[in-house]
Amino acid sequence: MSVAFDTLKFARALRDKANMSVEQAEGVAEAFAEASAEQLATKADITVVRSDIEALRLKTNADLAVVRSDIEALRLATKSDLAETKAEILKWMFGTIGFQTIVILGAVLALSRFGH
């Protein structure tokens, strides 16, 4: 889509206000029209860009929601794993303490029998 540009009106303004010759004014008007046709954005161009930006924003928000959900699931899994590890450590710790207690009591009993 190109931008509507009145080259005749522009050429007349250059001729009347800038005192250019007819050939100069028409040449400048044509050059300006060609240059601006490829570089100026139309309302339709801006609408398309806005639509693209909005779609990207929505996709980014959706992606962020997924990442947040994944992080929360990972946090909960880690918390659960830590609780299980703590329970295992406590189980082994009390088992070891119990075994050591039995060994010490056995040694004390054995020493008291041999001591008499």
Map the helices and strands:
Blueprint: H1 7-17, H2 22-39, H3 43-115
Helix pairs in contact: 1-2
Question: Any overview of this molecule?
Answer:
- With 116 residues, the protein is mainly α.
- It has helices at residues 7-17, 22-39, 43-115.
- The chain has a domain at 1-40.
- It is built from three helices and no strands.
- The longest helix is centred in the C-terminal third of the chain and has 73 residues, at 43-115.
- It is rod-shaped.
Integer-rounded radius of gyration:
43 Å
Estimate what percentage of residues fall within beta strands: under 5%
Shape summary:
rod-shaped
Q: What about the largest sheet? A: none
Helical stretch tally: 3
Distance between the termini: 112 Å
Helix content: over 70%
**Secondary structure tally: strands:** 0
Observed structural traits:
mainly alpha, about 120 residues
